[in-house]
Design brief:
Blueprint: H1 2-10, H2 15-59, H3 94-99
The protein binds zinc ion.
């Protein structure tokens, strides 16, 4: 393909050469599109794994998750949610920890 580009700098390509060059450019374009799709799939997979890992870290060693929260009404297994405002609590509510016997 590079030879054809070099030739195109010096003279007019024959129809056969032009068709070869067109095929080469199309093959390159397809290759780039496939690489882009592959990259997007890999990035999506990595993000899902990161989120799952973060969820596991958040819920590991949290026996209070087994009971529902009477403060925010989060069900068993679900993380506590904001009672006021929109910021997710970084820890489970104290009432829940007490109910689960984690705190006394
Ligand atoms: Zn709660």
């Amino acid at each position: 393909m590079e030879q054809l580009v070099d030739a195109a700098e010096c003279r007019r390509l024959t129809p056969v050469e032009a068709a070869d060059l067109r095929r080469g450019v199309k093959a390159l374009r397809d290759c780039l599109a496939a690489a882009g799709a592959q990259l997007r799939r890999a990035a999506g997979k990595a993000e899902r794994e990161r989120d799952e890992h973060a969820r596991q870290l958040l819920t590991a060693g949290q026996p209070a998750l087994d009971v529902a929260c009477r403060r925010c009404e989060a069900g068993a297994g679900a993380w506590c949610r904001p009672v006021a405002g929109a910021v997710m609590p970084r820890t489970l509510h104290v009432a829940r920890l007490v109910d689960a016997g984690v705190l006394s």
